[in-house]
Design a protein that fits this description.
mainly alpha, 72 residues
Length: 72
């Protein structure tokens, strides 16, 4: 898998959960990325969160909404 494919795989919102504990697992693609690839994923996710917040009436990203749902 090339770096661009790994970046796209690591940047997606979907994460597997551990069957026993329910904990979110890190993306396997993350482990295979170069340091530059990890920086690219960070920038991509950061920009995505800014867009999500700009489009939401309450200024919340989908990540924040998911955390709030789990806390309720």
């Amino acid at each position: 898998m090339n770096d661009q494919s790994l970046i796209e795989a690591a940047a997606t919102a979907f994460r597997e959960r551990d069957a026993a504990t329910g904990r979110i697992q890190p993306s396997p693609a993350w482990c295979d990325l170069t340091p530059d690839g990890r920086e690219a994923v960070f920038r991509l996710q950061y920009d995505s969160r800014l867009l999500e917040r700009a489009l939401d009436a309450d200024g919340l990203s989908t990540t924040v909404k998911a955390v709030l749902r789990r806390l309720s």
